[in-house]
Amino acid sequence: MTDKPFEIGVSSFADTYPNPETGERISDEQRLANLLEEIELADKVGLDVFGVGEHHRPDFAASSPATILAAAAATTKNIRLTSAVTVLSTDDPVRVFQQFATVDLISHGRAELTAGRGSFTESYPLFGYDLDDYDELFEEKLDLLLTVRENERVTWAGNHRAGINNRGVYPRPAQEQLPVWIGVGGNPASVERAGRLGLPLIVAIIGGAPARFVPLVDYYRQSAAAAGRDPRSLPVAINSHTFIADDSRDAADDAQPVRSAPLAAGRAPRRLPGRSSGENPLRVRTVRARPVRRPDRRGATAARRRDARHRTPGHEGGPARP
To answer: In this model, does residue 88 exceed pLDDT 60?
Structure first.
């Protein structure tokens, strides 16, 4: 995180959906090569942050964000590199910390980590976890992640992972403290937890008007204040699907087939009980922003607002963090 009042970036799941016009599907190898080019270009044109998501499905090539970000760290100079998100519930927090600390060292202090529970559920059976433990897994593993972040030597005990007795966790990051954000899709309990712990918040707007998520952000700040924290010091971000072209009409026309293809193929995120991410995800929104030419235009822009007290018109469609 920097001292800028507002940041704009891009995030990607490295999707490999078939081209809606030709039906051709890009290979995972080529998609990852394109993704690394995109990150390099984002750095060169001056974007602030690039995020890589985590999925374990045939239509996404990014299952290991830290690996991709480590490769990008060696070829970029200024852009911050983050997961978007790390599915912490089904990973080992110690390894997650070590991986992102390594990215931080390679990038000379540009790594961040966004922890979340995921809008897809394929990682739970894949790694041997029960969806009935959905909430408890995240809370416990977040506790361990923050414990490791705060302490070089760790003593910890939980229910879903073997305990740790005074063991050192290495390497330590280049930054004094590795930034950890919490990614949420609309669950008030997740928002309350982030505020109570004083962790920066990213709201994933999969569909619907950003204004519908204002009550969540208000609740986040109220929760932070109730825990004795200063809400004005906590960054807030939004992350939403965005397609950028020279003209709003062209952007909408060009984006619609691409946006429709995943859902037509039955690839919409599975909604979990109590979760809400807005309206019809096919709704197209455009952003008035300087066009950025990228090798592959799939992805989501991130406009990350740092000053929670000010709104900046025209950036409602991208990750925004205060």
So the answer is: yes
